[in-house]
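New to this. Explain these tokens.
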Amino acid sequence: MSDAVRRGKPSKIDMLPEDIKKMLDEMLRDSGNSQADILDAINRRILDAGMDEEATISRSGLSRHAQKHEAIAKSLRETRAASTALVAELGDKPTGEVTKLILEMARTQLFKAMQQQMLNPSCGLRYD
């Protein structure tokens, strides 16, 4: 996945209504769904919403979106693992240096989230 700013027109997924994009992202988070099942459900939802056949997404478009989605999820998992390891090693009672470390990690993650939002404003991914 490239961090470069995209040029050209937005993807079909970027142009979907928010409720359909939210459904797509929720289905991607659920590992019980295959990409074929997701593609069928989303395209059916697009057509049920009265959108044109041209608005349906392709397998390759879904695959690209899923790869971006997984890259973000992987980054979050790695950050959580690193935070857990640091807390285990340093203890859970904040001291001056531990507090500074935690605040710096929070700043870094906030910056990454803001950068991601700027690069792809329609990507409203959440990981609870």
User: Anything to note?
Assistant: The radius of gyration is 18 Å.
